[in-house]
Structure formats: structure tokens, C-alpha cells
Amino acid sequence: MARFQVRLAMQPGVDRAIVLQAVKEVTAHCAQTAEHPRTAFGDPDAHAVQTAARLVPAYQAARARRRNVVTDAIDSVSKRAGDIAGL
């Protein structure tokens, strides 16, 4: 369950509310069926990707991906500037 939560939180556009909703869904299903989460939902990484695709609107995920690209570019430039300056 912890791996599922972490992988879900790493998906673009996923916020705390979505993680809580997904955990609640998995927990409720497993409580009703007495199945282990891995048996019921399979690989936690794959289930996290599928859950994010189901719960995060496409526009929100796209916006988060664009923001991540910009942030990564800024971090890269800052690191290079620090390397050049000897920081």
C-alpha cells in the first residue's frame, strides 16, 4: 500500500485529495472482499498509473507535466551556474 501511495503521488496532477480517495477505494474494496491489495489490483506501480489516469483530469495532468518540465529546466540551469561559479 505504501508503494502504491508513493507512486500515485508522483504522477502528474495528483494531489493529496486524490491519494486519499484512491487509498480509501483500495482499503474499502479489500475490506469487503478480504483480498490482499496486490491480489485485487496487481502491481502497485501499474495500479498507481491507472488510478491517476482515471482520477486526474487530462488538462490537470498536462499542466503538471509542463510545470515539471519548466522546473527541471530551471534546476538544471541553476546547477550549471553553481558549477561554473564553483558553488
Write the layout of secondary structure elements.
Elements: H1 2-9, H2 16-33, H3 37-41, H4 44-55, H5 58-85
Helix pairs in contact: 1-4
Q: What amount of the residues lies in strands?
A: under 5%
The pLDDT mean sits at 86
What's the total number of strands? 0
Principal-axes shape call: elongated
Order of helices and strands: HHHHH
Radius of gyration: 17 Å
Helix content percent band = over 70%
Q: Structural class from helices and strands? A: mainly alpha
Distance between the amino and carboxyl termini: 40 Å
Biggest sheet record: none
Counted by DSSP, the helix tally is 5
Low-confidence stretches: none
Key terms:
single chain; 87 residues; mainly alpha; 5 helices; 82% helix; elongated
Describe this structure in words.
The chain is mainly alpha-helical. Helix content is 82%, strand content 0%. The chain contains five helices and no strands. The longest helix is centred in the C-terminal third of the chain and has 28 residues, at 58-85. The mean pLDDT is 86.
Q: What can be said about this structure in brief?
A:
The protein has 5 helices and no strands. With 87 residues, it is mainly α.
